[in-house]
Amino acid sequence: xxxxxxxxxxxxxxxxxxxxxxxxxxxxxxxxxxxxxxxxxxxxxxxxxxxxxxxxxxxxxxxxxxxxxxxxxxxxxxxxxxxxxxxxxxxxxxxxxxxxxxxxxxxxxxxxxxxxxxxxxxxxxxxxxxxxxxxxxxxxxxxxxxxxxxxxxxxxxxxxxxxxxxxxxxxxxxxxxxxxxxxxxxxxxxxxxxxxxxxxxxxxxxxxxxxxxxxxxxxxxxxxxxxxxxxxxxxxxxxxxxxxxxxxxxxxxxxxxxxxxxxxxxxxxxxxxxxxxxxxxxxxxxxxxxxxxxxxxxx
Length: 299
Prior knowledge:
By secondary structure, the protein is mainly alpha-helical.
């Protein structure tokens, strides 16, 4: 007597030969809420810039009569010509550019060398040096104004762009070292050991291996350092006296008078001042983001 084995049930996916049912899932409510929140935050974030642009292209009389939040009745571009003259931008632009071109490369180079030594070289008192450098991040700039002014006045370095470089370097190097040493730690030690076997010393390893590999981090700290140097006001206001040596932030104070303020001219001057920074951020945004996140994880 023969028995017939039961046929195993086929999976539903095999049995079904018809077309797949369309996906009718609705967007998650959490995604819509997140999008709405991000849109509101973006509008709030962009509102001051939009108000600045509108203020810069309206006559001062219209600004005074209708108020800062009203839509202007007339538009004018003469504010930019007046702002260039009142703010003495022909001189302040030159001074700020010279200061950035001198200070930023020097600061990045010093920070890179120190970060390389702390991250990859065996040096005595390395932890003490690292703690001393990072301690500079906790020192408020305000409590150093009087001592720095006395030292620079004694050295005859006030009212000089060169005199500004010392304080700028002192307050910029700790953050740059923090970013760069985190990046350098990710470079495999095998690369450095192989270079040493080939006869390369520490200087050659630094300039031919570490610097090319750390280009994103160098660009990041360079841009951030350039922005802070370009916008710095406190030391420039205290140490620079003559109009020929003032930087852009100090020149913008010319729009503030004792009895009246040129608000539309100030808005135009601010736009003139931030144009280089906006261009730099637009062109180098991916390097900035990549450099800041490079040291966040270990390879």
